[in-house]
């Protein structure tokens, strides 16, 4: 009984004590201005929907980094399947509702008409941060 309790406590310690922290710099060494975790991006390539991960912004671009998903087959590789959007190319933000009532959808539309449909529970915060970055 004591060993079972000790194993459960040890598993809880590793689960909650060793959390993944998002680095505050990009691979090229640029400082990240904004980071938001638990974001989904619905995209057509690769053809697995949705990609779950986190969004970061540097001074020049918006970056979506998917978290690796290994089941049933390896789908996303950290860094390789990232999506990059230049902040200068963003034209507007369109709010969308999920399931007709949940205010969680956001379409980032570029000047050439490309749509990046994001889903996040903190949509307003993401819009405010991106608006501040694009206005600079």
From TrEMBL:
Keyword match Signal: yes
Keywords assigned: Signal
Signal peptide: 1-21
Highest rank taxon of the organism: Bacteria
Keyword Signal part of the UniProt annotation: yes
Name of the protein in question: Lipoprotein
Species this protein is from: Pontibacter qinzhouensis
